[in-house]
Amino acid sequence: MSGVVDAIVLELIETRLTSVVREMRSIMIRTARSPMIHEGHDFSCAVLSPAGELVAASEVEQPTHLSALPWSARSVLARYEGDIGPGDLFLHNDPYTGGAHLNDVALYSPVFRGDTLIAHLGIMAHWQDVGGMVPGSLSGTATEVFQEGVRIPGIRIVRRGEANDEATDLLFANVRQPEERRGDLQAMIGACRIAEQRLAGMLERWGVATAREAMTALLDRAETRMREAIRRVPDGTYEYETYLDNTGDRPEPLPLRLRLTVDGDTLDADFSGCAPQVAGPTNLGPATSTTAVFTMSKALLDPKGPINAGAMRPLSVTAPLGTVVNARPPAACGAIGEVRRALESLVVGTLGKAIPDRLVGDLKGASNITAIGGPHPGRGRDFLHVEFPAGGTGAFIGADGNNTMRNFAEGDISSIQPVEAIEATCPLRVESTTLRRDSGGAGCRRGGLGLRREVRLLGPRARLSVLSDRNVIPPYGVRGGCSSAPNRFTVRRDGKEIAPSALPGKVTAFELRADDVVIEESAGGGGYGDPLGRDPAAVSRDVAYGFVSPAAALASYGVVVRDAEVDAEATAAERSRLAGTRIRLRVHRTAEPEFDGTRRVVIVHPATATTLRARSGALVELPNPDGPSLRAWLGLDDRLPDGSVAIGASALAMLGLIVGGEAELRCLDAAGG
Questions:
Q1: How far is CA 353 from CA 348, 395, 631, 671, in A?
Q2: What is the fold, at CATH topology level, of the domain defined by 584-667?
Q3: Contact 620, 297 (CB under 8 A)
Q4: In this model, does residue 672 exceed pLDDT 80?
Q5: pTM greater than the 0.90 cutoff
Q6: Domain with CATH 2.40.40.20 in the chain
């Protein structure tokens, strides 16, 4: 068969390819050894073209992996060009040539029909440990990649069906729980072998020529669909910025900036304004900024279309080498979940300015990697517990956010590790797992709630490591909605809660004692719209369900609930009072520098700061009626009139404010400093 593939055959081949990927997933879940895979589902499967382009994935794969798999595949193909044959297998996890972080290990299996290369099968799975300085490998304070585990630049572990045991022996000698890692690798190999058989059956039915034409047609069709979606977005250049809490090695916030240009049927994302690479783990390789742009533009513009390389063609991404979004070796890159999610928030906020009705409140904003490892009493070996606590999703125009759920940026990863899986393999007891009341951002639509989990150490000792963000700067609200509660990780010892690190969310090998309780509190999602516009009945229902406390119902929503009923008259009066207390200031353009180091500064008179109940250096935000809130830090100047705020030129442009107009200012941190 030649020329254009019959439409029905094209659909059948697309369905067959997706079915192959889904079967690979099932095999991984049934046969992998580590809880991170068989319980956490932190892995992805894909069919790639001979050139390494993404051809097929299921709807539940990890977006991080789906962009990294092709990048890593191209690295392997370049290294072994002209020397790839049937029965070969390759491993890769190098962040600088396209991988995610070192824990995300990719396996590639080329599929041949005779001497013709038809496709590559790819699996990227989060190995629970790949060596490094802490159990679980991911540290909040790593300063170079060598501290994060074994780096695999792309090596052949099987050649024409003959295993290279020396290579894998060297690899597994440098990881914790090597037998578990061997089991994960065998699960990946087994899934690829079965998938190869399924593709052979497809080729037997339709032939090589038709299958190759169909793969090309599927990419072309996805490209056309995505271009049509982009064409419906108003042309223009849109800008926004966000911050990471800190770098992991210093307390200063880390700025991330995006300039997004929509021109006809193309979308260009320029991250040139992002900070230079840092000594901490908050750096990325080159694939991840593309991941953020593709994931979020696809989710906002074409959520129902196929996920393949064709849909990526209308997108271009600039991520300058030497910045946190494209770091040079040997920068630590463990915090991919934190930086990528911040970039996703950045893309959503920026693109949402072009299409405000599709804006969504910020997600929990971090992977929240929590690892507890140490000796297992009576078993003669170490244990390792790793989980990524889920949080709330952002509210949007049609509904509240979801409570403690994975989201459209995370695939099928589980919300938390099951209690049974933890307690059966680790000397830990899960004391409680609950929704975290008042954690969702207030709004006309409320952000989803985060979770609170308490885990007690039953063994004599262990070490805790956490890699998280949004512990200081909370997830944002949109269109006047409020921020959610930030992530928070503490330890209760002898009845007192203590911070396990000086930098919130960045913990490295904190020594736990018997009966210590690790407390995980994940962030909620950002709110959407004015909280005073929320239906009082919905607020009352939230109070009845325990989602919102009576105090927060009154303070955030102005709703008075008495005996489980809304007092309509008192609510109307309270809402009128709260509306009158909002701080609206006359806008000036500052003549001072817009930034103090990495922090954006807005300036007010000391008397205005008193009204805000904030000191110099406090974290504040400027709500945007048609976009996400903009964060800054408070500066004081008694030369400025009371009741005014001085804002930098770029912030004025991002918020659409004019000098002489008004802007609302909210304090997020009364402590300041």
A1: 8, 16, 16, 31
A2: Barwin-like endoglucanases (2.40.40)
A3: no
A4: no
A5: yes
A6: 584-667
